[in-house]
Amino acid sequence: MERLIRKGAEADIYLGEWFRKEAILKIRKPKPYRQSELDVEIRKKRTLHEASFLMNARKAGVSTPLVYFIDQNKAEIVMQYIKGVRLKEMISDRKMDNIDALCSEVGRCIARLHKNNIIHGDLTTSNFLVVKNRLVFIDFGLAFFSQRLEDMAVDLHLMRGVLQSAHIEVADEAFNKILKGYAEIAGMNMIKDLVRKIKEIERRGRYARVE
Amino acid sequence: MKNRLEIDKGIFCWGCESTAHTFSCSILKSDGRILSDVKSIYTPPPGSGIHPREASRHHIEVAPKVVKQSLIQAGLNMKEVDAIAFSAGPGLGPCLRVGATVSRALALYYDKPLVPVNHAIGHIELAIMLTGAKDPVVLLVSGGHTIITAFSRGRWRVFGETLDLTVGQLLDQFGREIGFSSPSGQRIEELAKKSSKYISLPYTVKGNDVSFSGILTTAKKLFKEGKDLDSLCFSIQETAFAMLAEVTERALAFTEKKEVLLAGGVAANKRLQEMLMEVSKRHDAKFFVVPKEYSGDCGAQIAWTGLLAHSANISVDIEKSFVKQSWRLDKVDVKWRD
Ligand SMILES: Nc1ncnc2c1ncn2[C@@H]1O[C@H](COP(=O)(O)OP(=O)(O)OP(=O)(O)O)[C@@H](O)[C@H]1O
Hints:
The complex is a heterodimer of chains A (211) and B (338).
Chain A: E1 3-7, E2 12-18, E3 21-27, H1 36-59, E4 67-71, E5 76-80, E6 85-86, H2 87-92, H3 99-115, E7 118-119, E8 128-131, E9 134-137, E10 144-145, H4 149-166, H5 171-186, H6 188-205
Antiparallel strand pairs in A: 1-2, 2-3, 3-5, 4-5, 6-8, 7-10, 8-9
Chain B: H1 2-7, E1 12-17, E2 22-29, E3 34-41, H2 52-74, E4 83-89, H3 93-110, E5 114-118, H4 119-131, E6 137-141, E7 146-152, E8 155-161, H5 167-177, H6 185-192, E9 205-206, E10 209-210, H7 213-224, H8 229-255, E11 259-263, H9 270-282, E12 286-289, H10 299-311
Parallel strand pairs in B: 1-4, 4-5, 6-11, 11-12
Antiparallel strand pairs in B: 1-2, 2-3, 6-7, 7-8, 9-10
Residues 6, 8-11, 13, 24, 26, 65, 79-82, 86, 126-127, 138-139, 141 of chain A line the site of adenosine-5'-triphosphate.
């Protein structure tokens, strides 16, 4: 009945039904390579975070799949099936006409999350689903609450890294659009602070050398 | 010797590595044969880290012997070499300058093209050549690097990296705390084998990036409080390597590539190999690991990459052959790969 539709890095994603509605079953299966206590700790924590932050994000004004059911011990979540295309494929297939608009919307959504002290923790183009012209954010397993500028900057730094590694041909343009969208919600001052912080983070981590 | 060259046509590249604690020279032939790989490693006193100036002094002292030995072992003289390659970065300034100076002088004297090599790419190219990997997701882990990278559109693109310490630094700095001399990865691996008791340490994955500073601070503190050292070593490995395995898995899922290559000095760790092998299996990817003797910094990495670059007509004028202490691998146009 359930069909495996994707093997994510963390979880297996099945398409099935939940009370006669199409639904996604996301299971964080044990990873045999991981020490078992650590493995259980990670899977439980992320399942719980994911479920609660899918809801928190919605309250902050960002669309996410509805959560139908969660089993923390089995590290399973049943959620609404979103029939959409990932932004990753939209960019790769060069459906360029609305990419700009979508990137601005990505920026606005991230700003809404940050405004509510929600750090997504895993901003990548495979975690934005596009349905018609709307954006749905998924994969909140690494999300957490924070008011620190640093955490928000790391969030955006990761986003930029993904664009530069996976979508180099549009990376700079897309990131600028994201910042523009972000600024619409959070204001220019906030963006200035963030950009400064991102630069600092990049200087710090990169090419750490034996000291 | 002349005879062999005449029968056996090919291109020869001499390479010099001196980014950090290792000074090493090597000659490779275009068919991939490593004709020589001679090295001398600077070891700081137990409990202290590598001091750039001390290390560079060591390099200056050993350079003549290592250079000479690399030629003797290969049975060649410098005139028979087609190109001279050196590690131009990233690395410690004083150390880099020793290798660069030696290489410049040789290139000038023998009138050979001088080829600058990015050391991270050196690790990767030699590992690819030795393992036969074709288009892998690479986890490069050493004292100087912790990077997850894959090739796309002319460059090695960084999918994930550390936000603070490298995994090598984590192991060395913890080792220093307990009085080991650097590098201490091997000793920590031995101690880790003696325990299977897991002590919880901060597991920090942020998107595709990792952070090791939490592990280091916590482990140091627990050590001072008298926690069992074997269990601490075990737990540091379990936590840090699981983080690396996870981000590698993420890059694999994202890029949908079908090969994983583990490279860099820490690649020698059996537990890390085991974890990455499992990751590869789960995604039906082939797993490769660089042979142990070429996992650490060595001249062969530079000579081989220099040879590839030379074959793509890459060289630098002596006057412009600066070293670049923080030369990112994703800034290098890799013209020899498609
Ligand atoms: N609610 C949903 N509706 C439709 N598709 C979904 C849904 N949730 C997940 N998917 C699909 O499954 C993929 C993986 O899901 P998700 O990102 O939640 O898992 P993961 O294992 O954490 O992935 P990652 O590899 O990004 O870490 C998504 O990119 C998307 O294609």
